[in-house]
């Protein structure tokens, strides 16, 4: 049975412009399929404009692929993500729905630390000087490598971060004489962290879009924001309360099973019955979106684009050590290990002794059983940091289709489909960004803006 999310009694009052007094004037009713970051971003934007929305989420909680999970009475995330200071739309919506980014995040200046092998820390200088200074002072690189990296960034800036033709990141690095050691320590970890795609498969243009926004505008844009609360609480849960304060509905455990155009509107079928809407935003994951759209003849081309997407995994290994166990930094990387990035949840969120190891993109780790993978991470922590204690428990969360493979010249489906009253939202839809929270949020906002213009 569908469950409607309860409104928070302590929620702040709704702003006047969303009071719903003009709700009957525009004639729009919007159904949103999916309560992840894309769907909830669209819902908040529409609700703030006084447009009634109903969100259908098949799971028992919101967040999609960025959601909180409970294990051993401890709040975890299904994957350990971070935000960047340039994620302006995501941060704006968190604030709009009642969050406080100063409290919700541990904010760190740009720093890349591969324990014992490489360290880069950006000083408090205006962009892009902060990055150039960091590159020229980076530990673990020769002077020649530092100069090559700095010249590469200056060349990208002269090009305005636009390529005449897309290519792989590996090809772009070779074109600009970025040698193997420099690539292994700097560009490859950066590419995998940003695009979740290996450099020999990753789109250079999409990486440049991220570098442009994170490193070229203001110093704060490159800051790393590590959430102190789980990803469901961070935005989707607050967004649901915001939507309901503005007269909308958020239905949990209520998956949509069919989409049927009907007399100028769209009927959504669920296990609990059917509802009609004048407009629908499908913000489901790509595989589910393709299944729902496949029966609609007008959307054959869109479904074909979704079907061509390849996927990359993200594995997160959580380990609960005794509370006194800490890492040298809240976040740091390992060089040429199974563990790529480590997060000290005690330093970040007060979950003392809880460490998270993140392994992004395809690799040998996929061939291991979960217990084997956890043992590899435990061994690496012992060898790198001298942690000899045995964790009380471990939990491996494997998102095998975590993101789309961000390949060069990838044709991603547009938000507006061939059916005027049906739109798509999701990090996989057309946009400058790879599969990130900001990409998902921007897609939802675009859908909301398109529908608002029709009001």
From TrEMBL:
Pfam families registered for this protein in UniProt: Amino_oxidase
Disordered: annotated span: 1-25
Stretches assigned to coiled coil: none
Superkingdom of the source species: Bacteria
GO molecular function: oxidoreductase activity
Transmembrane segments: none
Domain Amine oxidase: 38-449
NCBIfam families: HpnE
Protein name: Hydroxysqualene dehydroxylase
Taxonomy of the source species: Bacteria, Pseudomonadati, Pseudomonadota, Betaproteobacteria, Nitrosomonadales
């Amino acid at each position: 049975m569908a469950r409607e999310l309860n409104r928070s009694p302590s929620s702040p009052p709704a702003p006047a412009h969303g009071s719903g007094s003009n709700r009957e004037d525009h004639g729009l009713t919007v159904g949103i399929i999916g309560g992840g970051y894309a769907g909830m971003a669209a819902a908040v934007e529409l609700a703030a404009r006084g447009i009634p929305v109903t969100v259908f989420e098949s799971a028992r909680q919101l967040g999609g692929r960025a959601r909180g999970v409970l294990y051993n009475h401890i709040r975890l995330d299904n994957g350990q993500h971070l935000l960047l200071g340039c994620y302006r739309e995501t941060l704006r919506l968190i604030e709009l729905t009642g969050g406080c980014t100063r409290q919700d995040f541990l904010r760190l200046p740009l720093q890349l630390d591969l324990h014992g092998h490489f360290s880069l820390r950006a000083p408090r200088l205006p962009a892009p000087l902060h990055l150039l200074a960091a590159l020229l002072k980076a530990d673990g690189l020769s002077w020649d490598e530092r100069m090559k990296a700095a010249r590469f960034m200056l060349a990208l800036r002269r090009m305005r971060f636009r390529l005449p033709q897309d290519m792989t990141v590996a090809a772009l690095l070779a074109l600009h004489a970025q040698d193997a050691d420099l690539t292994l320590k700097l560009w490859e970890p950066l590419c995998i962290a940003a695009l979740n795609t290996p450099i020999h498969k990753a789109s250079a243009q999409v990486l440049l879009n991220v570098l442009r926004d994170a490193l070229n505008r203001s110093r704060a844009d490159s800051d790393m924001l590590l959430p102190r609360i789980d990803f469901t609480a961070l935005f989707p849960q607050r967004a649901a309360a915001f939507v309901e304060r503005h007269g909308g509905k958020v239905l949990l455990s209520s998956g949509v099973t069919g989409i049927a155009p009907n007399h100028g509107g769209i009927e959504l079928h669920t296990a609990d019955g059917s509802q009609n809407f004048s407009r629908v935003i499908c913000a489901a994951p790509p595989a589910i979106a393709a299944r729902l759209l496949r029966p609609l003849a007008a959307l054959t081309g869109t479904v074909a684009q979704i079907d061509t997407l390849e996927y990359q995994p993200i594995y997160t290994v959580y380990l609960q050590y005794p509370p006194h166990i800490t890492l040298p930094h809240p976040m740091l990387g390992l060089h040429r290990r199974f563990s790529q990035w480590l997060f000290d949840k005690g330093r970040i969120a007060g979950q003392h002794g809880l460490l998270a190891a993140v392994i992004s993109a395809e690799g040998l780790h996929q061939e291991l059983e979960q217990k084997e993978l956890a043992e590899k991470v435990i061994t690496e922590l012992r060898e790198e940091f001298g942690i000899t204690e045995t964790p009380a428990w471990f939990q491996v969360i494997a998102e095998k289709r975590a993101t789309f493979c961000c390949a060069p010249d990838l044709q991603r489906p547009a938000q507006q489909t061939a059916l005027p009253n049906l739109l798509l939202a999701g990090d996989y839809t057309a946009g400058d960004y790879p599969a990130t929270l900001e990409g998902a949020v921007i897609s939802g906002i675009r859908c909301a803006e398109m529908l608002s213009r029709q009001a």
